[in-house]
Design goal:
Strand content: 15-25%
Helix content: 25-40%
Largest sheet: 9 strands, mixed
Number of helices: 15
Number of domains: 2
Radius of gyration: 21 Å
Shape: globular
CATH class of the largest domain: Alpha Beta
Oligomer: single chain
Number of strands: 17
CATH topology of the largest domain: TIM Barrel
């Protein structure tokens, strides 16, 4: 029977709940000064002040003295394109010189270049590359990451990415949640016949991934450079029939009514939402669709940020994620994400913490088991070497992660993978 006792934390900081917190309730954090967390067999057994813990709980426990540190739920990066090969720094330089993301795509760059590189990489090569990324994420306090496919464009290559995601989940150190996103772009071979590619997605890729249980979500990029509303609805409806929960890349570059479609199909989340209209967001609120905002992408593209304040003030469930990918956002930095969300999107520090923990968990259908420090939940916990939670943003851009615990096992100690 394994047991860990975290004691004398400067602060234990957590949202409370087993579903996403909407609107202004995102600011409601429980903060326990001189806090204590007792973990047994991978679960959180007790959360209290250190003075309230009975002495017998120390027997046989690994003691973590968190004096001068804060304890948070493990962070959740709920939107990434984790498994890919190759980089596109030349396109980044082109954008810095004034070219747009869409113009680069129109000239054969963008997602298609990453598809070519990923197709040419072996499954082992992709695993080795992605595993290093996962370990670096863990060192920033991340205990769960979502990984989308979408750099394949053929049945075998999409399957390859999904298999890598499954192997990452099996090997640890953190949880990897797999999302099928074959509908990322109309690949080169089918530019002149998009319906043929959509047929392959619906009739070959979705059934195969479902049969092999390689993903639990299906995502579509609804955008004028990718799939239109009707096409996205066809793909997502087919995915739903095969048992997938639904996600949508919505209204990132233009308003394609993605927020409306997410609500119509009862998607678990709609992601990006830079150009969504109020009516679509209101429909999302009514249908409890989590809004996953990706400020580092807007930062990287030098685009306006999604209107987080409007969404929160209108009672939506708002989560944050990195959108780590080789084109529009080549970073998974949690410290940078927190700072940009606060300073450029006008979110409070409390809202950012909820957005990266409990609400992020809701966006991947796991709020019942992770995302907060509560009795009975999985012991996914991050300890940061700072005196209070304001320092997460006040000491901006600095990784202050000290210790990370995943399901009751220490996976990061003193900032390094165990």
């Amino acid at each position: 029977m394994s047991k860990i006792l975290i004691t004398h934390a400067g602060q234990v900081v957590t949202p409370i709940g087993r579903s996403g917190r909407p609107g202004r309730s995102m600011k409601e954090l429980t903060v326990i000064e001189d806090g204590c967390v007792l973990i047994q067999d991978g679960k959180i057994l007790k959360v209290c002040k250190s003075s309230e813990i009975d002495e017998h709980w120390r027997t046989g426990a690994t003691i973590i003295d968190a004096t001068g540190k804060i304890v948070l739920p493990g962070l959740i990066d709920a939107h990434t394109h984790l498994v890919f090969a190759g980089t596109r720094e030349d396109e980044f330089s082109m954008r810095m010189s004034g070219e747009s993301y869409l113009s680069i795509m129109d000239r054969g760059g963008g997602i298609q270049r990453s598809i070519d590189a990923t197709r040419n990489a072996s499954e082992k090569q992709l695993f080795d590359i992605a595993r290093k990324r996962v370990q670096n994420m863990a060192k920033m306090g991340v205990t769960t990451v979502e990984a989308k496919s979408g750099y394949g464009g053929t049945s075998d290559d999409e399957i390859k990415q999904c298999r890598v995601a499954r192997k990452l989940q099996e090997s640890g150190p953190i949880s990897v949640v797999s999302t099928l996103m074959a509908a990322h772009t109309i690949v080169r071979e089918y530019k002149s016949d998009p319906d043929k590619y959509i047929k392959i997605i619906i009739e070959e890729i979705i059934p195969r991934v479902a049969r092999e249980k390689l993903a639990e979500f299906c995502d579509v990029f609804l955008e004028k450079s990718a799939f239109n509303y009707v096409q996205a609805e066809r793909i997502l409806t087919a995915a739903k029939a095969h048992g997938f929960e639904l996600k949508i890349h919505a209204d990132e570059i233009t308003n394609g009514k993605g927020a409306h479609l997410a609500a119509k199909l009862n998607a678990i989340s709609a992601e990006h939402l830079l150009f969504s209209d109020h009516e679509g967001l209101e429909e999302m609120r009514k249908h409890h669709v989590t809004a996953v905002l990706l400020p580092l992408t807007a930062f990287s593209l030098r685009e306006p940020y999604a209107n987080a304040r409007h969404m929160i003030d209108n009672n939506l469930i708002v989560a944050l994620a990195s959108d780590f990918n080789p084109g529009s956002c080549y970073t998974y930095s949690m410290p940078m994400l927190m700072a940009v969300a606060c300073l450029s999107m006008h979110m409070s520090i409390e809202e950012v913490i909820t957005a990266l923990t409990l609400n992020a968990a809701a966006s991947i259908n796991r709020a019942a088991t992770i995302g907060s420090i509560e009795t009975g939940k999985d012991a996914d916990i991050a300890i940061f070497d700072c005196p209070n939670y304001a320092h997460l943003v006040y000491h901006m851009g600095i990784n202050q992660t000290h210790t990370v615990i995943k399901k009751g096992e220490i996976i990061v100690r003193n900032g390094e993978i165990v």
